[in-house]
């Protein structure tokens, strides 16, 4: 569990289903289109799986009310082709309920998550992909001190155009190294 001034980051519980359905049924950016859920049954299935993930997948909980207002996760990846190499790179995903955006909660949660990854989990590099029209996610990366490393033009497709062809997104990559992290 990770605690900040206004938030607690903790593993998901099966009892979080109502709060999670509230934000996972909202309209999503294209990159999260596959995460959108429609029914309580779908959320319960997801939470059964998530409840077992205790290290890298957290509910963002408002201390004042106990409500789950979003989520943050990111799993260690290895960038070294050798077998048994250390998985020391993480690409986080963040999402907040729309009623709780614009209040600094995403920054507070992401800052605490980065501190946890760098200082407790031995992570060396954190990178984030964000689409070029997702300005709130870009601002969050910048507030966290991440460097803009590049723009990949028509890099990936998450959804289709009305005519059925792939809709390609321009993707910006941000990153920060542990030695650059000011904590
Ligand atoms: C990306 C996302 C998590 C960012 O959330 P957010 O609420 O905009 O980010 P922050 O918590 O950093 O809040 C920043 C805003 O709160 C304002 N704010 C208000 N009170 C504040 C406080 N006490 N402390 C800090 N900032 C505060 C800031 O001024 C800032 O406003 P600005 O964006 O107009 O400059 C959110 O937009 C989201 O969930 N989007 C949908 C999912 C998504 O796109 N995920 C990323 C895919 S790449």
Give the helices and strands, then pairings:
Layout: E1 2-3, E2 7-10, H1 17-24, H2 40-50, E3 57-62, E4 68-73, E5 76-77, E6 89-90, E7 93-96, H3 105-120, E8 125-131, H4 135-143, E9 147-160, E10 166-177
Parallel strand pairs: 6-8
Antiparallel strand pairs: 1-2, 2-3, 3-4, 4-7, 5-6, 8-10, 9-10
Helix pairs in contact: 1-2
The protein binds coenzyme A.
Q: Give the distinct bound molecules.
A: coenzyme A
Number of DSSP E strands = 10
* Helix/sheet category: alpha+beta
CATH architecture of the domain at 2-127: 3-Layer(aba) Sandwich
Termini Cα gap = 18 Å
Let me know the average pLDDT. Answer: 95
CATH topology of the domain at 2-127: Aminopeptidase
Overall radius of gyration: 17 Å
Order of strands, main sheet, comes to 1-2-3-4-7
Q: CATH homologous superfamily of the domain at 2-127, by name?
A: Gcn5-related N-acetyltransferase (GNAT)
Largest sheet: 5 strands, antiparallel
Query: What is the chain-wise order of helices and strands?
Result: EEHHEEEEEHEHEE
Shape: globular
